[in-house]
Amino acid sequence: MEGSSSGAAGQAGGTDLDIRVEHALGLFVLAPGNEGSRLGAARRAAILEALERQGRDPLVYCGLVRSAVAGAFLDDGDPRPKAEQEAGGERLPEVRAALGDIWRMDRHVKPVAALIDGPLGGTAAGFVQAMVHKVACEHYRLMPFGRGASFLDTLGLAHPLARAGVGMGRLLALTGRPVGRADAVGLGLATMAIDAGETATIEAALADADPIDPVLDARARPVGEGPLTRLTGMIEETLGAPSVGEGIARLRAVGGPLAGEAAAIAGEIEARGVIERSLVWRLVGEAASGDLRSALRLEYRVQAWCAAHGGRQAARTAEAERIAAEVLGSPAEGGELDLPDLNVAPAAIG
To answer: How far apart are CA 25 and CA 64, in angstroms?
Structure first.
């Protein structure tokens, strides 16, 4: 339920999500519930429904999402239960709904900021990346997917990772390497970093209808260069290759002080299934050349193919690359993903 401007709040549909309207601010406070820190369909629906109401309210200027607990945020990065993985096409309605929710989040009429003070992973990361401001707090940690999972278990991240650079996007999507806040800011995955203890000040200023951009900009702090950002040149030179086979060969050929790091990355990529790495390689590469809508449709093509051919593994790299080209270059089996024009765009209010 949604509280009034007096600050009253309640749980939205049993989702452990407090939604409040504090004067000019729509506030969303996440609390770990029965499913831990997972976002899930119920929380996504509650957030989007409240944002749509607030979008029609002229007294609400912006939205703010934060956790009630320091060190926790939203993490859908664990692998799906085996029963769900074996459901095949039965999961496609869930996939369509999640990708549609990410699209709706991107098209919301008023700016929304997420104060990320904990792990952010999996499809939850795709949803949050569609918000206007991704603020990296003290405990920020972006994880494309969790241990034992795959990038193919994640929705909505192909476009934001590709915007960090095609090579870097492929590195993150194929290895799942965690991203700290210095790298997140350096790679454009986070808008800025702030110090611990700024949350209450930001909340108060936004509730008083102060413009969101100056409020956040005034509290941004430098965080230096992260370990991944330092590798950008080598990563783009190698993983920017036209094929996964050539990318691995380029990594193996790196000499000098980065030779060990390049070899380790090559090993991590080679540990992935042949068809998985070919699909992810092409998906990130093509997502880099289009907008979010086209990237979400590409993701759906991959998911539809996986649902129809779940356990199939290509025996040779050449076959896998041919399959990936066909999957990404053809309409999804069973029909394309429908992402309607919502006639709404993110607005920099104030």
So the answer is: 7
Please name the residues in contact with 262: beta carbons below 8 A apart, sequence gap of 6 or more: 234, 238, 251, 252, 254
229: closest CA among 294, 319, 292, 165?
165
Q: What would the pLDDT profile of 164-212 be if each residue is shown by its tens digit?
A: 999 999 999 999 999 999 999 999 999 999 998 899 999 999 999 999 9
pTM for this predicted structure: 0.90
233-288 residue pLDDT tens: 999 999 999 999 999 999 999 999 999 999 999 999 999 999 999 999 999 999 99
Alpha-carbon span 98 to 126, nearest angstrom: 9
E strand intervals along 169-316 = 192-193
| Cα 51 from Cα 263, distance rounded (Å) | 46
C-alpha torsion 142→145→146→148, nearest 10: -160
Nearest to 157 by CA among 258, 296, 262, 261: 296
Name the average pLDDT for the chain: 88
Residues 6+ apart with CB under 8 A from 180: 140, 141, 226, 227
Q: Name 75's bridge partners.
A: 121
Tokens of 307: 């649902």
DSSP state of 34: T
Digit-coded pLDDT (tens) for 127-176: 999 999 999 999 999 999 988 889 999 999 999 999 999 999 999 999 99
